[in-house]
Amino acid sequence: MTEDPSPELNAALARLLQTTWARVPGTRLQLADLQRHLLHEIDSASRTDGIGKGHAPDQYTLSLHPGEITLLYATVPDAQTQLSSGLAQALRSSGYQLAREPHITLATDPTLEAGEARVIAWHSRDPLLMTGVVPPEAPKDSPPPGAFLIVDGRKHFPLVTAVVTIGRNQDNDLLLASPHVSRKHAQLRVKDGHYVIADLDSTAGTLVNGSAIREARLEPGDILTIANVELIYGEDPSGPPGVTPPYAPPFRFRADRDRITPLDLRVQKDLAHRTVRIGKKPKA
Questions:
Q1: How far is 269 from 228, CA to CA, in rounded Å?
Q2: pLDDT (tens place) for every residue of the chain, 284 residues total
Q3: Separation of CA 267 from chain center
């Protein structure tokens, strides 16, 4: 993320490693080298969003010589948990954003010499999709002319911007009031003149034509299932179909008058078997 990592993070990692290994007898691990490797991995794997915030990786593997692992666990049985929670605190105090709690996996590597260490860091999910914050280079194309969504079979939602967030929170572009919908559930983005839908690591998942997706390009007529809410994607440059008049919800606040908010979505029983189970999402 930067050639000169945060001095606060540098100091916090030094304290964490020293605290963890201070009681380990006979260790030959070079903590200064481990600290430098960890800083490099955090810096290299971090992502910066459109408002300049750095998102640190949430998955780490720390590989050590088998003898070092044995010594560590003999003295600090909860070393893996201690390192993970300490890293989370260090990252937050240094200004990094975390889409998920970081987890450090301790692994043995017999190819390493005693005192050597190897660190690998990565994101389990794209943090920019999970937070709904799109980097500045993403979508620059114009939306397809006349693109729209039909919500609940009768409500017309025009798609006129390059990014459209869908979810239960008030700050989404399209609000779906069903309790099964995640706070930030999915996002539509324009790529190469077409809308692409991406699931934002939602609980119930997102389906396109009955298949669970992480990301999929949309074509007119595609049926989207957001938890238990069905939407139909369409494109009509001449305007919305006459049978689907614009939806006018009973707004309570004047600030909401520019936002279409389907508050009376019905739960369709025939969609229950199509809802994705937690942890059953396909690979992207």
A1: 9
A2: 444 457 889 999 999 999 999 889 999 998 998 999 999 899 888 888 777 788 899 889 899 999 999 999 999 999 999 999 999 999 999 999 888 889 999 999 888 888 899 898 888 777 666 566 555 554 457 888 889 999 988 788 999 999 999 999 888 899 998 999 999 999 999 998 899 999 998 999 999 999 999 999 999 999 999 999 999 999 876 654 444 444 444 434 334 333 443 433 344 444 334 334 434 444 54
A3: 27
Q: What is the dihedral of CA 46, 50, 51, 56, to 10 degrees?
A: -10
- Cβ atoms of 175 and 251 within 8 Å: the answer is no
Determine the Cα–Cα distance for residues 161 and 269; give it in Å rounded to an integer: 32
Name 231's bridge partners.
151, 224
* pTM of the shown model: 0.48
